[in-house]
Amino acid sequence: MRGSWSRILAILLKELIQMRRDRLTFAMMLGIPVMQLILFGYAINTDPKHLPTALHIEEQSPVVRRFTEALEQSGYFAFVRRTVDPREGKALLESGAVSFVIHVPAGFARELVRGERPAILIEADASDPLAAGNALAQAPAILDRALRDTLTGPLAHLAPRPPAVNLIVHRRYNPEGVTQYNIVPGLLGVILTMTMVMITSIAMTREVERGTMENLLAMPTRPVEVMLGKIAPYILVGMIQTAIIIAAAQGLFHVPFMGHRWVLATGVATFIIANLSLGFLFSTLARTQMQAMQMTFFFFLPSILLSGFMFPFRGMPQWAQALGEILPLTHFLRIIRGVMLKGTDFLPLWIEFGAIGIFILLVGTLAMLRYRTTLD
Amino acid sequence: MSELAIDVRHLSKAFGNKLAVDDVNIAMPRGQVWGFLGPNGSGKTTTIRMICGLLRPTAGEGICLGYDIARESDRIKRRTGYMTQRFSFWNDLTIRENLEFVARLYELPSRTAVVDETIEKLGLTHRQHQLAGTLSGGWKQRLALAAVTMHQPDLLLLDEPTAGVDPQARRDFWDEIHALSNQGMTVLVSTHYMDEAERCDHIVYLAHGKLLVEGQVREIVASTGLVTFRAQGAGVRVLAPKLKTLPGVQHVAFFGAALHVSGTDRRALEQALAQFADDVQWEEVETSLEDAFIALMERAGPDARLSA
């Protein structure tokens, strides 16, 4: 057993030296998290505002003015064009120059006063449902308010009445709906998935490609020793990446941290090990570094798309959710979002920890079985 | 302890449906230096890899250093030094780091001292912090040899250690092999060079995966029963194609500027050569190992392994 530790140490030291010498990879390991965090953290926004809007207004009346003002004040609509031709409005939507065309027909105010329920038409480019959704959801409330503000005095009977029930909605954990609160912790999981799986899978296949594997196999090393020795340095790398991202999450994006640090640390550690064992498994399957890269990406895409990082997990059909449950990222996202935003403790998350644990056990065993001590 | 360092019987290895090694038997006593010869692709590397446990034999069995090659490769690896055909140490580690890594894997006691001594013996003390990848071919081979012998193995397996190395470095390398042999190491070395083969106690010649012949250099040469004549001079180059078709001439080969003509039937050969006595001067020479191998290869015929 003592010999085993010294061989693990030997491999670990060798990896550390090689890692230090490979400047580009080393720079990437630390540069990628920062770059991706800043890029995606600032770029991704699931609540788009200031969407270009064209106004096709055939009548200027106080009600209409109040309504358009309110639309603009909501921050969702930015009026970029005024038009008098319905065909132009259509062309603008088609070309993508505007996301909305708002049409108020002539005689609107007159019909309103007569109680004839005149219509306002909002044409939206709904080809991306996410982009138009929030803005459209705001429109009725904005109209209501505009009507209540202007229909006073003798016209008060035309103003919309408040509903019979006062519906109270609490948007908890992220009341302002800041996208970054959701994206930035998730990015930690995405970045760890990509770098950890890729680096380990490449580190092993590189030995095969360079012919040093034959040498390693000819010396007295056991598979488990090679695996531990190879993986250990990258746990350290993962920890550094985590530290960078958490620091940036709080410093740059002011993401709250409600829970306990140790719960998150445990989550990060298990998640890193899960990804490293998968990388090791890939390296036993791939013959070249190129193949290892390809496998990493085949795994990476579903991890992003099915884990709930990009799209709501519960929005997927059952079978896709079942697939998503296999991915360690799915469970890690629940852990990190829970800990950071909700202050969730360890116990309510035990299923997520358990799921990642099972993943490690299965993948690790498979990797050990696949790892060959011979060249055939 | 068994008298034999390597004792393998009916060893075969197939990759897919291609038989790389076919029914090879080797019984090699401890303490000797054996040469492993044969053309490229004849199965030398595969055989060596099976002996040290890097490949599982498809058929056959064997003992190496008293351990079963199929089941006890862990033990064999600890007592064996295997130098691969291609330089397989880490180019992005320094000379010292490579040696320290190896020393750690073999759990050598007083590691620093052993590594210091190895580097000093190599004469690389002032270059120990240089990356191994920056060494010349000859130095790489010397480093590899030093690395695989640092743990004082009983058996040394060297796979074409001097390929692509300059003549002086080759000589130095062989002096080192003999020095190691004198310390008691058993050495099996594969090579393409006949002068190196002649420095071996015993030769095993593989062709197309089969063991074609083995024995001492003298025995192998004698076993072919060849008579060889040699001619040199300006005219020999045009003679070669004409000679090949004559009765009694079994093979014709150039050795530098000289032409060697061999055959097993002395009278027929002499008659054939007499036709060209006016153009060049013939003299009988001792049949060389290379003559013997060329003849053996021609007798072995084409490679029949593909449809195995």
List keywords for this structure.
heterodimer, A: 376 residues, 4-stranded mixed beta sheet, 14 helices, elongated, B: 308 residues, alpha/beta, 6-stranded mixed beta sheet, 4-stranded antiparallel beta sheet, 35% helix
Lay out the secondary structure.
The complex is a heterodimer of chains A (376) and B (308).
Chain A lengths: L1 H20 L1 H21 L7 E7 L4 H12 L3 E6 L3 H10 L4 E5 L3 H6 L7 E4 L4 H22 L28 H32 L1 H7 L4 H29 L9 H25 L3 H18 L11 H9 L1 H15 L7 H21 L6
Parallel strand pairs in A: 1-2, 1-3
Antiparallel strand pairs in A: 3-4
Chain B lengths: L3 E12 L2 E12 L3 E5 L6 H8 L7 E6 L2 E2 L4 H7 E4 L11 H11 L5 H12 L14 H13 L5 E5 L7 H16 L3 E5 L3 H4 L4 E6 L2 E6 L1 H8 L2 E5 L4 H9 L6 E5 L2 E6 L2 H9 L7 E4 L3 H12 L8
Parallel strand pairs in B: 3-8, 3-9, 6-7, 7-8
Antiparallel strand pairs in B: 1-2, 1-4, 4-5, 9-10, 11-13, 11-14, 12-13
Widest beta sheet: strand line-up of chain B: 6-7-8-3-9-10
Largest sheet entry of chain B: 6 strands, mixed
- The average pLDDT of chain A is 89
- The count of DSSP E runs of length 2 or more, i.e. the number of strands of chain B, is 14
**From the helix content, strand content and strand pairing of chain A, which structural class follows?**
mainly alpha
Tally of helical runs of chain A: 14
Average pLDDT metric of chain B: 89
Considering DSSP H and I runs of 4 or more, what fraction of the residues of chain B is helical?
25-40%
Order of strands in the sheet with the most strands of chain A? Answer: 2-1-3-4
What is the number of helices of chain B? 11
Strand-residue proportion of chain A: 5-15%
Tell me the series of helices and strands of chain B, N- to C-terminal.
EEEHEEHEHHHEHEHEEHEHEEHEH
Portion of residues in beta strands of chain B equals 25-35%
Give the CA-based shape of chain B: globular
Q: Please give the number of β-strands of chain A.
A: 4
